[in-house]
Amino acid sequence: MMNKSPDGPGPAVRAAGLGVERGGRQVLRDIGFAVRRGSVTGLLGPSGCGKTTLMRALVGAQDKVTGTLTVLGRPAGSAALRSRIGYVTQAPSVYTDLTVRQNLDYFASVLGIARTARPGRVGAVLADVDLASHADALAGTLSGGQLSRVSLAVALLGTPELLVLDEPTVGLDPVLRRDLWDLFHRLAAERGTTLLISSHVMDEADRCRRLLLMRAGRILADDTPDRLRERTGTATIEEAFLHLVEADRRDNGPENAPEDGGTRP
Ligand SMILES: Nc1ncnc2c1ncn2[C@@H]1O[C@H](COP(=O)(O)OP(=O)(O)OP(=O)(O)O)[C@@H](O)[C@H]1O
């Protein structure tokens, strides 16, 4: 079933002049970009550059946001967006003393999915993330990769129009990573879901239709993988990124924004 948006055909996400202050520091500054509906967009950049903060702003979980941030046609954080967005954080958010199925059934009830519809919906998302064979295992006995797939299954329960995934493939073996990327593209192609996926692994970049490259709280580039390589005259996204970082250093100096190293209270 394709997602139908009540808010017209505009971009899924549009940011302009976006800034975020965290811990008394400006950690995002003058961010501007648009994410097309039904696309798979990668948010790439080194640890601490602000990927999670940007995602938190998108889903309405971040304080001290300035500028414009529109999500599915509404201001980020609007109550009406809650059921339309799926957000998977880096830390799996499931109950370890419940089975996978019990977790999903619980979250389905929280989402207001009717009791009679729940077994079907739970079965469908278990199949999506390839965990049907572990449905009755206690979540606490699963591997890290399996646990993060349970979190993804939770996010899929409500058939979200926008899926925001914070480093969903970290720590996964190559086969699982490939399978997850296949799933992401199926969700976009078959259901019209928009996916924004963060990673600091540059070799995942080619799996995205479009890339947002971040450094030190700013967007360095917003382009397709091919065009990024072409316009920087490089062979890989990693080289393209390094090329853009050097150009940025020349233009703005090395200290234009805080790099990683802050503490996280
Ligand atoms: N709770 C917090 N309070 C204050 N500053 C924070 C907090 N969390 C993160 N920061 C700072 O905000 C900046 C951006 O952090 P963020 O977690 O968004 O980066 P990231 O790109 O997602 O990093 P990673 O890839 O390591 O997850 C960093 O400088 C970090 O130190």
Describe the structure.
The protein is α/β, with parallel strands linked by helices. 32% of the residues lie in helices and 23% in strands. The chain is built from 7 helices and 10 strands. The protein has helices at residues 51-58, 100-110, 118-128, 144-156, 174-191, 225-232, 237-252; strands at 13-22, 25-35, 40-44, 65-71, 74-75, 85-88, 162-166, 194-199, 210-215, 218-223. The strands form 2 sheets. A 6-stranded mixed beta sheet has the order 6-7-8-3-9-10, with helices on both faces. A 4-stranded antiparallel beta sheet has the order 2-1-4-5, covered by helices on one side. Strand 4 (65-71) and strand 5 form a beta hairpin. Helix 2 packs across helix 3, helix 3 crosses helix 4 and helix 6 (225-232) packs across helix 7. It is globular and about 60 Å long. The model is unreliable at 257-265 (pLDDT under 50). The chain binds adenosine-5'-triphosphate. Adenosine-5'-triphosphate is lined by residues 22-23, 27, 45, 47-53, 200, 258, 260, 262, 264-265. Adenosine-5'-triphosphate binds at residues 22-23, 27, 45, 47-53, 200, 258, 260, 262, 264-265.
Low-confidence stretches: 257-265
Mean pLDDT: 89
Number of strands: 10
Shape: globular
From the alpha-carbon coordinates, what is the Rg to the nearest angstrom? 19 Å
Small-molecule components bound: adenosine-5'-triphosphate
Beta percentage is: 15-25%
